[in-house]
């Protein structure tokens, strides 16, 4: 895990390139920068040619920081920008794949029970539900 942080100034965008990063980027907090402006600042991100997504709105003297849980593993560059008068600090960290716990995409995380036969100990012969269902035919 490696720390990541950047100041996104109003009117200037910051580009994060996954090709230059040390793993998946996880952003955990946005904090309003110092200044005298009392108007809100909106943080947005844009990935590739898609429509920008608003991440948070920070308002001086009300909401000056925001917890985020965003993870980027994009092939395209991610562009962060601020709409409003004050800068915003984005902080987080890089998540590197664990070599000891790495699982392939085809490996199951649980047991496939679709085609297995088992007897339930929770039901008995007294638990007949045939009369409870409505038959529309």
Automatic annotation (TrEMBL):
Q: Which GO terms describe its molecular function?
A: peptidyl-prolyl cis-trans isomerase activity
Entry superkingdom? Eukaryota
Top-rank EC class of the record's enzyme: isomerase
Spell out the reaction equation it catalyses: [protein]-peptidylproline (omega=180) = [protein]-peptidylproline (omega=0)
- In this chain, the stretch annotated as Disordered covers 98-137
| E.C. designation(s) | 5.2.1.8
Q: Which UniProt keywords apply?
A: Isomerase, Rotamase
Bias (Polar residues) ranges? 98-107
Q: Protein name, please?
A: peptidylprolyl isomerase
Organism phylogeny:
Eukaryota, Viridiplantae, Streptophyta, Embryophyta, Tracheophyta
